[in-house]
Amino acid sequence: MTHYDIFNGDADGLCALHQWRLAYPAQTTLVTGVKRDINLLREVKLGAGETALVFDISFDSNRADALRLLGAGARLVWFDHHFAGERVDHPALEAHIDTAPDVCTSLLVDGVLGGRYRAWAVAAAFGDNLHAAARKAAEPLDLDETQLGLLAELGELLNYNGYGDSVADLHFAPDELYRQMAPYANPFDFIAESPAFQRLRTGFAQDLQAAESLLPCLNEPHAAAWLLPDAAWARRVIGVLANRLATASPQRAHALLAPNASGTLTVSVRAPKARPEGADELCRRFPTGGGRKAAAGINRLPTDEVENFLKTFDDFFADRP
User: Fold this and answer.
1) Residue 32 is part of a domain; what is its CATH number?
2) Which of 58, 78, 93, 315 could pair with 82 in a Cys bridge, judged by C-beta atoms 3.0 to 4.6 Å apart?
3) How does pLDDT run across 153-209, given as a tens digit for each residue?
């Protein structure tokens, strides 16, 4: 029988799967991709009695394929915090979905596991730019500020590795990065011992240095946007840079746009951290857009839609209380 682990290639997807497989080791087939490759059930084929565990991808974006697999007799266990659409009740679907803005998938897994590998969930929450939620989850761990800083760096680096137009843009394919993480029950051991961590740390520092010269194409008190160059480093850094900008200016919404191989632009949007809602609603106004309330994006924005997007983005967040 075939059993799949299907996960988003960012920090939250990686850490959610890692926690689960630390608790329940199993030989499974891994299905993943870059962070924006969210239609991951498309190529999956399962039959009666076979199982797929799904971490950190939208049920709504995979609804047709989820129903196809359920109809074939498969069992699905789903953990996610993105917009899910209309609820599906099915005896073979176990759904742990919470779209609250202070929740990530790894924290949902942590809740089911009773905190057994919570430090990994804390890293994931930091990686998803949920700093307050990460610190709250970490309270029972009695960590000092240096340790919290290392988990924040780990989450940011794992998240950074997921961004790119294709796996070729990444330092590690997400399934390979998961395999690098798999031997480590303690994230501090991974930080201290893994060459993968050091490679991500070095690559991230170089990419951030390249981003220092960027200037905004929209710069208002309530919203700012940047148009990035057509370069692999820009595609890698787009999500983490958006998170950093959002943290530095919590009253302002942020958008970053980067050219991709399809001739369109990839867009990352962050709602103001002081009011972390609306990013998903804005992005769903455009084809290929979606995400969660605090952070969302558009996979393929046509170049002739850039002006319309910037105006819509500006107006949307100007009008919010």
Assistant:
1) 3.90.1640
2) 58
3) 999 999 999 999 899 999 999 999 999 999 999 999 999 999 999 999 999 999 999
- DSSP state string for 40-90: TTTT----TT-EEEEESS-TGGGHHHHHHHHHTT-EEEEEE-S---S----
DSSP secondary structure letters along 10-44 = SHHHHHHHHHHHHHS----EEE--STT---TTTT-
Amino acid at 299: N
Q: Identify the pLDDT of residue 319.
A: 81
Query: Do residues 269 and 124 share a domain?
Result: no
Domain with 84 in it: 3-202
Asked whether residue 248 is domain-assigned, the answer is: yes
Give the mean model confidence (pLDDT) for residues 201-228.
95
In percent, the amount of the chain with pLDDT more than 90 equals 93
DSSP helix, strand, coil percent of the chain (3-state; round to 5): 45, 15, 40
Q: Report H helices in 87-144.
A: 105-113, 118-127, 131-138
252: closest CA among 223, 279, 215?
223
Measured CA to CA, the distance from residue 72 to residue 144 in angstroms comes to 49
Within this chain, do residues 17 and 91 fall inside the same structural domain, yes or no? Answer: yes
Q: What is the pLDDT of residues 40-67, one digit of tens each?
A: 999 899 999 999 999 999 999 999 999 9
Residue 284 DSSP label:
T
Three-class SS state of 116 = coil
Residue type, 50: E
CA atoms within 13 A of residue 261's CA, in its CB half-sphere: 7
